[in-house]
Write a structure and sequence with these properties.
With about 325 residues, this protein is an alpha/beta fold. About 35% of the residues lie in helices and about 15% in strands. A seven-stranded mixed beta sheet has the order 8-3-2-9-10-11-12, with helices on both faces. Strands 1-7-6 form a three-stranded mixed beta sheet. Strands 4-5 form a two-stranded antiparallel ribbon.
Length: about 325
């Protein structure tokens, strides 16, 4: 400490402006790094990136082994989430619509990851954040960004992490934050994206963007969650998706695409969605999304449904039986 004081006195008595400037820079670095200066401004809720929450987040080795290695069939699930502003009405109530989703998956050994539908070939960032373009994102719990990108049963609070990662609040809604504190919802998963919605192309991009993330011996399920359609898809997109998947995962690995969307022809849901849109956002039938679902023998459930858990039941049934019953619509 005495040495530091001597350095301070020497720098302050330095007649050269450069010497004083160097001292002030040194002073700021030392005091900021040691925590004397706050890293966040008063009234702003800090987004924490937990360094090592394993003791708090993970189950013990005994619990983990007992729960995940009982010979259960494995399935890896990628959620491709449309996080445009038009989806806020659905993303802010996922604690209701997905409340039984994780418990319903218990008969299988599941693993879940998330990306959003921001594959815009003409853009690279959105409000300063790089676009994901199929790359999976970090998980969230209670406003803390976890150092994990895949969720599975070895997490103690897997249901809560699933909901917190998937949930997006409307900008300006401070009811869920501590008093006098606010954070931009776009700074937390599932983050925000622009109005160029490309869930199918984000899915296609994910095959190369997430190497060694999913298990070789597990079935692969993609869940597209959108009230729109893919803006860049054409008549060959479904076949392109299958070609890209085989290119990266071979022909032995099973892929099924499921959707939570406005099912083509569901006029009642379409009108409901349009009537509840923010800032004149537009609704779209998921026509290209539905083509991909049909190509892979997956399932579609209406985004207007009050409960999306039947989709989890179908994932379990398909994983255990390794077959599709031929239908694509879940009413």
């Amino acid at each position: 400490m005495r040495g530091l004081l001597n350095l301070c006195c020497l720098s302050l008595t330095n007649k050269k402006p450069v010497g004083r400037l160097l001292f002030l820079l040194f002073f700021c670095v030392i005091f900021y790094g040691c925590g004397f200066f706050p890293h966040t401004l008063p009234g702003i809720l800090e987004v924490k990136d937990l360094d090592d929450p394993s003791d708090e987040i993970l189950l013990s080795t005994e619990e983990r082994d007992a729960d995940t290695f009982k010979g259960k069939k494995p399935v890896d699930i990628l959620f491709v989430v449309d996080t445009s502003y038009s989806m806020v009405q659905y993303l802010k109530k996922v604690d209701q619509t997905f409340k039984d989703f994780i418990p319903t998956l218990s008969p299988v050994s599941w693993k879940i990851a998330f990306t959003n539908a921001d594959y815009d070939p003409n853009a690279f960032s959105y409000y300063g954040r790089d676009l994901f373009k199929g790359k999976i994102m970090k998980l969230e719990l209670n406003g803390n960004i976890l150092p994990y990108s895949t969720l599975h049963v070895r997490f103690k609070s897997n249901k809560e992490i699933f909901i917190d990662t998937l949930k997006r609040y409307e900008q300006g809604d401070v009811s869920h934050f501590p008093p006098d504190q606010y954070i931009n919802p776009c700074d937390l998963p599932p983050y925000c994206q622009g109005n160029v919605r490309t869930p199918v192309y984000s899915l296609i991009s994910s095959f190369s963007a997430n190497k060694n993330v999913f298990r070789n011996h597990a079935d692969f399920v993609a869940v597209i969650f959108t009230n729109g359609d893919d803006m860049y898809s054409n008549n060959d997109t479904a076949n392109l998706m299958m070609e890209e998947f085989r290119k990266h995962h071979g022909r032995k690995k099973k892929i099924s695409v499921y959707s939570i969307s406005i099912i083509p022809g569901d006029e009642k849901c379409f009108n409901y969605d349009q009537a509840n849109q923010y800032n004149y956002a537009s609704s779209h039938y998921g026509e290209k999304v539905h083509e991909v679902v049909q190509t892979t023998g997956g399932k579609a459930i209406s985004i207007c449904a009050p409960n999306y858990s039947p989709l989890a039941s179908e994932i379990v049934r398909s994983t255990l039986n390794n077959t599709s019953d031929g239908s694509t619509i879940i009413l």
